[in-house]
From TrEMBL:
The lineage of its organism: Bacteria, Bacillati, Actinomycetota, Actinomycetes, Streptosporangiales. This is Uncharacterized protein. It comes from the Bacteria. It comes from Nonomuraea rosea.
Amino acid sequence: MVVEPGVFRTDFLDTSSLSTATHRIDAYDGTPAHVTLDWAGEANHTQLGDPVKGAALIYEVTCQDKLPGHLYLGPDTLERLQVKLDRVEQDVAPWREKSAATARDDAA
């Protein structure tokens, strides 16, 4: 089982856990890398996820006979997953029939 946690209110984004470069390269301002670094500094200790609730759910799930392949923890992971599923469906939908039609005629 892969546990895919969202942002939980821990020290994960704190300098005690996260190491970042001392100097930033100005040419990268506005890029996803710098946007993420800025977000990490702002989000530290304001994350919505409750680590106690997350750990309790992991324990509950692992006590079951059948484990999921992936356990998404937090509304943020569910939102990102839904965006991904929607993108996959948008890619597949227009070509579904033609893609299925590429099977060999004797495959039936």
